[in-house]
Amino acid sequence: MAKSILKNDRECFVCGNIYGLDKHHIYGGGNRQVSEQNGFWCYLCKRHHTRTIYSVHGDPDHRLDKELKALCQAVYEKDHTREDFIKLVGKSYR
């Protein structure tokens, strides 16, 4: 498991809460292993992960999910090309 490229503190990436954290793989499904190996993950509290309409998995418009995907890609592209990113994840989110 690689360290998160977004934030290594053990706190919610969105609000800073330190309780009830889940590890959120930013590119899940078939890319879960890619996320794990490349640090494409962050900690989220239950409120921002699964429990509310504002959460990554609860918002029907996927706002936070899209924001995290684009941000993670932007951080990765500081040291890599967009083509490198697309080879890993399959598409661009920016």
Structure description:
This protein is of the alpha+beta class. The chain has one domain (21-86). The chain is 37% helix and 11% strand. It is built from four helices and two strands, in the order E-H-E-H-H-H. The protein has a two-stranded antiparallel ribbon. It is globular, with a radius of gyration of 13 Å. The mean pLDDT is 95.
User: Structural class of the helix and strand makeup?
Assistant: alpha+beta
- Beta-strand portion reads 5-15%
| Topology as a string of helices (H) and strands (E) | EHEHHH
- The tally of strands reads 2
Count of alpha/pi helices: 4
Radius of gyration: 13 Å
- What is the strand arrangement across the widest sheet? 1-2
Specify the helix fraction band.
25-40%
**Outline:** globular
Question: What is this structure, in a nutshell?
Answer:
With 94 residues, the chain is α+β, with helices and mostly antiparallel strands. It is 37% helix and 11% strand. It has a two-stranded antiparallel ribbon.
Blueprint (SSEs and pairs):
Blueprint: E1 21-25, H1 32-38, E2 41-45, H2 46-51, H3 63-76, H4 82-89
Antiparallel strand pairs: 1-2
Key phrases:
94 residues, alpha+beta, two-stranded antiparallel ribbon, 4 helices, globular
